[in-house]
Write a sequence for this structure.
């Protein structure tokens, strides 16, 4: 793997864990809509990184597409209200690491989340000054590999790497033609990676040493 000129990060499972807040956003809407369902943390953790359409199909197969979208829209509205207050758990070393890495690399966040969620995370974590740009699936509803390539084109990145926590992140990195850096502390498991780190400090130390 050649020396990177930029680092593109996944968000959920890579920089933070907000699954409890995400689950609450679902369960509040189920209660509001009088739907006899409860989503547990474990159920939702297994879907982290999925595109919204896939999540909807698994969680609400009994509803037609219009009803699914109505419910999902309400969930996202709830989530946007809950995140600034509840936030999530920032992984150890992330805030300090991003500050260091930003001195050497342009940093980006690219996630399969809804529009506006990455910005809420950036503001909550207080990392705005370290992030060059961000892109969510909800901006254009395109797969992650497409958006990785789009971000590289938009910022003239010659040797980016994608840093994520799931096998799906690895697959999308391959399709985008960029190296995949796996962080094992997140939600997924994979053996298909170019580099692997068990904590964010190790990742930071490695890229700062290049």
């Amino acid at each position: 793997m050649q020396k990177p000129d930029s680092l593109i990060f996944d968000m959920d499972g890579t920089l933070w864990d907000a699954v409890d807040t995400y689950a609450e956003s679902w369960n509040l809407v189920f209660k509001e809509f009088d739907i006899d369902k409860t989503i547990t943390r474990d159920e939702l953790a297994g879907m982290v990184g999925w595109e919204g359409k896939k999540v909807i199909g698994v969680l609400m197969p009994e509803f037609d597409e219009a009803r699914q979208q109505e419910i999902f829209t309400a969930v996202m509205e709830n989530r946007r209200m809950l995140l600034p207050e509840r936030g999530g758990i920032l992984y150890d070393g992330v805030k300090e690491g991003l500050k260091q890495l930003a001195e050497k690399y342009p940093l980006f966040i690219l996630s399969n989340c809804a529009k506006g969620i990455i910005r809420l995370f950036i503001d909550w974590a207080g990392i705005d000054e370290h992030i060059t740009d961000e892109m969510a699936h909800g901006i254009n509803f395109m797969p992650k590999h497409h958006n990785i390539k789009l971000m590289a084109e938009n910022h003239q990145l010659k040797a980016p790497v994608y840093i994520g926590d799931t096998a799906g992140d690895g697959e999308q990195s391959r399709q985008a033609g960029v190296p995949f850096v796996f962080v094992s502390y997140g939600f997924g498991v994979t053996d298909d990676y170019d580099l692997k780190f068990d904590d964010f400090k190790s990742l930071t130390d490695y890229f700062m040493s290049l």
Summary: The CA atoms of residues 103 and 130 lie 8 Å apart. Residues 65-86 form the longest helix (22 residues).
